[in-house]
Amino acid sequence: MRLRIFTEPQQGASYDMLLAVAKATEETGFDAFFRSDHYLKMGDVDGLPGPTDAWITLAGLARETSRVRLGTLMTAATFRHPGPLAISVAQVDRMSGGRVELGFGAGWFEAEHTAYGIPFPATARERFDRFEEQLDVITGLWGTPLGETFDYDGRHYRLSGAPGLPKPSQPRPPVLIGGTGPTRTPRLAAAHADEYNVPFSSVEDTAAAFERTRAAVKAIGRTAPMVYSAAQVLCCGRDDAEVARRAEAIGRDPEELRRNGLAGTPAELVDKIGRFAEIGAERMYLQVLDLSDLDHLELVASQVAPQVA
């Protein structure tokens, strides 16, 4: 089991704060630093100093770190055209020496689109149609041999004579697709993803989602391996008092977090991570909401990670 740190900067974080967390992630031995890709806060927080762009952030972190993987959970297909996004991800991958992963989704948060003037397709079907075409375009551009060009004639996106440059450092940055949709999400993951992620769900619901995607993988005769992973909000403490303090800092109830997240003492976390491992999860994304609490990362790195590695 690999443990990855996952942040939500739209809730309130500067680049300097994200840099501190990313460096702590690397120094304490976690596998990766991921961030959300959102432009508007959610819930009862001030969100100050305001949003940071995911791929600009990761470009900076690519030069400030040397080991950890870097990625998004999840970049919204509604935010960027697929050609420029393929260029951005490839460039950041080169800047990092081949450590980038693209978590990619159809987009869902309408309010942030309205706030910043980003067109938001009226139906989920259109969002998924655009998402699927973007997957075709991005991976097609990365996979175009040097000296050749890429053409694409879709309903929403059309490319002609694209050189497919720049190339990422990796032959293809891993693509993550997540969600719990019962039909289209498993099919898209089976066709396009290197990793399938289930966010903020119980062990039982995560297991069911994994099985749907395994069935989709089998149905298309895929032989390439699929990584299965889960994301859970993190709240760890050496004792109940420390768990309660960290839960209060993020506006949550400790018992509710124990039921619906990855919360409790190190021993409790080891037990629950073990349950995710039993259903086939190979990576856990630990959603860290209080980015000023770097001791939280140190605790998990020293008392949880060695027991689940």
From TrEMBL:
Extract one GO molecular function annotation from the record: oxidoreductase activity
Q: What is its EC number?
A: 1.-.-.-
Pfam families, sorted: Bac_luciferase (PF00296)
Annotated Luciferase-like domain ranges read: 7-246
InterPro entries associated with the record: F420_OxRdatse_Rv1855c_pred, Luciferase-like_dom, Luciferase-like_sf, SsuD_RutA_monooxygenase
Recite the UniProt keywords alphabetically.
Flavoprotein, FMN, Monooxygenase, Oxidoreductase
Top-tier EC class: oxidoreductase
Protein name per its UniProtKB record: LLM class F420-dependent oxidoreductase
Species this chain originates from: Nocardiopsis sediminis
Q: What is the lineage of its organism?
A: Bacteria, Bacillati, Actinomycetota, Actinomycetes, Streptosporangiales
